[in-house]
């Protein structure tokens, strides 16, 4: 189990670092209004790098904030994965960050690129994603999957070494659901009359407070007008 756990951690690290490297490959193909095809990397989109065109020369692209956000999350996931061999909390945080970045990248890759790619100051005739963006998304989701698998394996190993003194994650979840179910049964739900009565009281109080605030605002505004007018 320990060997399998280490394999999952290594794979999570390799995939997270691989996803980060993929940001430096072509994410988007941009066809300018002049018919020129430009290949733009994820890093260029996120940080607003320079692209060279035959008509405009070198131009600075605007920053695509969503892609920059995913790049930063991916970098954090890769760093946390590297430290997961030493620090316990990074072992848990790394797959969570990778999952958030992977889901966000999945939304971006499945959406129309015009919503997430800021191609200013270029005037374009076409815009499309390159396969690299899908590979990046898959790498992040797989890194998260292997990281989560490592969490369960680590917990399982700890329970085995404690000889049953500790509970597995599954046992904790089942125990929580049972306690939640027992607490829900203790709830005393109000009857229809009580609900109507309480709702009416709340509405009346809201109306009174709203009327008081309106009168106070009206009075203060008139006072300000009087002072400024004088």
Strand and helix layout:
Elements: H1 2-22, E1 26-32, E2 37-41, H2 42-47, E3 50-53, E4 57-60, H3 65-83, H4 88-110, E5 124-129, H5 131-161, H6 169-185, H7 192-229
Antiparallel strand pairs: 1-2, 1-5, 3-4
Helix pairs in contact: 1-3, 1-5, 3-4, 4-5
Task: Name the descriptors.
mainly alpha, 5 strands, 230 residues, 3-stranded antiparallel sheet, Butyryl-CoA Dehydrogenase, subunit A, domain 3, flat, two-stranded antiparallel ribbon
Distance between the termini: 84 Å
Average pLDDT figure: 90
Low-confidence spans: none
Element-level helix/strand string:
HEEHEEHHEHHH
Shape call: flat
CATH class: Mainly Alpha
Structural class: mainly alpha
**Which sheet architecture does the biggest sheet show?**
3 strands, antiparallel
Percentage of residues in DSSP E strands: 5-15%
Descriptive report:
There is one protein chain. Helix 1 runs antiparallel to helix 5, helix 3 runs antiparallel to helix 4 and helix 4 packs antiparallel against helix 5. The protein is built from 7 helices and 5 strands; from the N terminus they run αββαββααβααα. The radius of gyration is 28 Å and the shape is flat.
What's this, in brief?
The chain has 230 residues and is mostly helical. The chain has seven helices and five strands; from the N terminus they run αββαββααβααα.
């Amino acid at each position: 189990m320990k060997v399998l756990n280490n394999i999952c951690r290594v794979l999570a690290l390799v995939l997270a670092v691989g996803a980060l490297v993929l940001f430096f490959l072509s994410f988007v193909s941009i066809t300018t209004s002049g018919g020129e095809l430009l290949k733009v990397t994820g890093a260029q989109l996120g940080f607003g790098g320079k692209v060279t065109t035959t008509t405009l020369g070198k131009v600075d692209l605007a920053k695509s904030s969503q892609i920059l956000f995913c790049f930063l999350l991916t970098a954090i996931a890769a760093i946390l994965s590297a430290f997961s061999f030493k620090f316990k909390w990074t072992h848990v945080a790394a797959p969570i960050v990778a999952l958030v970045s992977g889901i966000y990248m999945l939304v971006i890759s499945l959406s129309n690129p015009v919503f997430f790619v800021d191609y200013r100051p270029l005037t374009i005739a076409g815009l499309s994603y390159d396969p690299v963006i899908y590979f990046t998304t898959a790498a992040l989701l797989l890194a998260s999957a292997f990281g989560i698998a490592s969490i369960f394996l680590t917990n399982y190993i700890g329970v085995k070494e404690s000889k049953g003194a500790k509970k597995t994650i599954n046992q904790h979840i089942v125990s929580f659901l049972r306690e939640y179910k027992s607490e829900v049964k203790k709830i005393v739900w109000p009857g229809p009359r009580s609900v109507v009565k309480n709702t009416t009281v709340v509405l009346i109080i809201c109306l009174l407070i709203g009327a008081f605030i309106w009168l106070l605002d009206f009075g203060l505004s008139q006072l300000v007008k009087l002072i400024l007018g004088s």
